[in-house]
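for the record, two folds in this file. i put them one after another cuz i was lazy. first one right below, seq on top, structure tokens after. the second one comes after a little note so u can tell where it starts
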Amino acid sequence: MLEAMAFKLPESVLVVVHTSDLQILLLERAGKDGQWSNMWQSVTGSREPEDADLAETAWRELLEETGLATGTLTDWRLKNRYEIWPQWRARYAPDVTHNVEHVFGFLVPRITPATLDPAEHVAQLWLPWQDAMKKVFSPTNRDAIWQLQKRIAA
């Protein structure tokens, strides 16, 4: 008897890790045979069925992807709905074509090196927000960084 394949939930978090002077942590995705090389992003990850809420998802992803635990997590109450890229669609149930992404910020006291999981990320950079916006591959990530500088200024 075959086990049922566990599909990813079409709900995720995007966590922009930053300092008070708007230095942004970016992570370069790991990929097979350079497939996703030079794809920079903030912390991201899918909600798991056992996650009590989206804040728990954000904390879990922060710890898994960066090891960072000292800082302030803020739910921006911002949602993005987007079509799942074809190369990642097989991870979801066959009828799922879109994902809902919930945006969080994570304010750290200072630039701190992340502890990367080499299966997920191969490099890290801290950049000023303007440069980070230019480097990320995801339009929703770019928008979140833009939103961050407006939030800090307000």
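(here's the note) second protein begins now
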Amino acid sequence: MNGPSTATCKQEPGAIVPVVDFQRCEGKGDCLRVCPENVFEIRRIDDADFQSLGFMHKAKLYFHGMQVAYTPNADACRACGLCVKACPEHAITLARPQ
């Protein structure tokens, strides 16, 4: 697995979670490849998430195959930050869960 061991991660699982900005994400999967906790999946954007975007962002997503990163295992995140560094679109931030 690429990335740090869990001993070098900064937080207990779920204390900090990755947040994906669908206005920026192009579903390239760099986050998926670097995450040592298997937090991410790349899949077709949900209809509700797609409808909340403006015209230009919808067009961009259509051009990029309607694929974005989702975080089905966000509660496993240990805040190593590798996904933030790996994302070429700067679409990922780390935040405390809401």
